[in-house]
Sequence to fold (683 residues):
Amino acid sequence: MAILQFMDQEGILPYSATYDSLLHTCVDKKSILDTNLVHAHIIQTGFKPEIYLGNKLVTVYVKCGSLVDARRILDEMPQRNVVSWTAMIAAYAKHRLNKEAYAMFYEMEEQGIQANQFTFAGFLPACGNLRALEHGREIHEIIIRSGYKSNAFVDSALLDMYVKCRCLEDACKLFDKMSERNLIIWNAMISGYAQNGFLDKAVDLFGIMPQRDVVSWTAVIAGYVQIGHVDEAFVMFEKMPDRDVVSWNTLIAGYAQNGQVDKALKLFEEMPKRNVISWNSMISAYARHGHSQKALDLYHEMMQTGVSPTQHTFTGILPACADLAALEQGKEIHEVIMRSGYQSQVFVSNALIDMYAKCGSIDDARSAFDEIFEKDVVSWNAMLAGYAMHGFGKEALQLFEEMRHSGINPDHVTFLGILSACCHAGLLDKGLQYFSDMSQYYHLTPAAEHYCCMVDLFGRAHCLDRALDFINKMPMKPDAAVWSSLLAACRLHSNVELAEIAAEHLLGLEPENTTAYVLLSNVYAAAHRWDGIEKVRKMMKDRGVKKAPGCSWIEVNDEVYTFLVGDKSHPQTHKIYECLEILLGKLKEAGYVPDSSFVLQDVDEEQKENILCHHSEKLAIVFGLINMPSGTPIRIVKNLRVCGDCHSASKFISKIIAREIVVRDAHRFHHFKNGQCSCQDYW
Fold:
């Protein structure tokens, strides 16, 4: 925006053509920040834009993805014409803000503004998105009365509306009545058949259409992708005379959705030209299928190539940061979000809340939550889940009350969060009240996940018999998660008899569930039932079940380091083990005694202690102590439940070293500070 500075310095007065040209540049760059600069300059200079320039500002903000700014401009315009209204209506419909599109369309009518063909074409997608068939038919009648019934542009929008409403009968009637069908109409009908599961009809229509373009081919490919027939989609893709980036992206997304990440990557690497959607598809594919580090690597590669990220880039990459607990990289991405102007997008902010919570920084999660101007139910649920997984029951209950007073109705996920919070904080009475309120006051039927939380809650309160009774009275068959919760409670309360019942049910549902074998072995070990441990070992051997190896990771200087039990692959191995021995000596002096009951291997006590001392989380903690500045919290992620011995050792370390240690295991967060844990020794 150097030209604005030059004009200011030279005292040159701006005029509409100058701003028009600059706004064109903003659209080309899709830069919200540059658009803000031009807009601010218009205000600062006191320039009074005519309707055309006001419309241009609305359109530019829309194309840059900031509908909030676009709407503010529209509301501030002293005069508006049909173009002003149409731009906003179409934008709302395109971004699936359908209620907003409806409200604006009818407000325009009330103000006496006559809709034109572009208004109808822009509004009809909202009817389709909501599957509001009757409204769509009403608009169809208005179109006929307005004289646009033979307009190909409007016909295409009508056809698309009927298709989205799954009213293929009306779509076919409309298609058959058209005296002239252009390529757009043919493609819309083919897409309609393909999207609604009538792929055979789509293929038949594709075969008889007078001419085809890349959209025609891609519509059929998308149809195959939708039903999971990606190999057939690839055959069509290979036959295409010409391919555009959309056809490449469609097939990449197909492979990604089917878990064939390697094939998606091969196409991604082969495609001659990529756009941001290509990058987003591949980043999301990696993140969704457990390749979080690869997702981050690809994101950084995308940024280095100069591709501007979109909101979908951020919602794709932030879960990867969450999975790895890569807090520093998550914060760097947050900075990019702010510079890009996407902070106002609620689903981006929701992803930020989730990322910060899962990275162990609940304060940052709350800051991201508080900064959302218009929170939706997902925002509240994300923050509730964050408090729950960290064991902050009081904060979760307070937030739930704030949510109720905000006018946002809780849903099933909300109650899953609040019940989980009650569970982790040991609030039995509150949990029972919320479980009752769920159906009595909110008319929501509890699912198996909600019952699982209640079993956890009874277990924490030492009410194992009530937990079993609760399970027996469930209206649906208890699933593996419910029995696993009961078994975990039996482990902590050393109830062998009930543990055997829970394990029998759990292994009957999931005979390869390693957690069941481990928990049952822990129960036997605590009761010194070595015969029971041997029985479990034999069951595992007979069934070919192997315990998943414990794995812990830690982020240091924007890099994630992974450790296995007894790991000696790290370049700093010698120093890590040397410091670990010194630390263990201090722990024992302070009263720490290794608990060999958590070693299930059939070895002598000395070997058991050696295995315990070299558990992955201990190695990760020592690595953090060596490489992170003094006073910095050490954040660890464990792929399994943290074992009792490591839990005890972490409490001692937090006191002796005077450092906060935050561990995210497979069940919850543990905040170790001054020799205490936030879970109050229940996990």
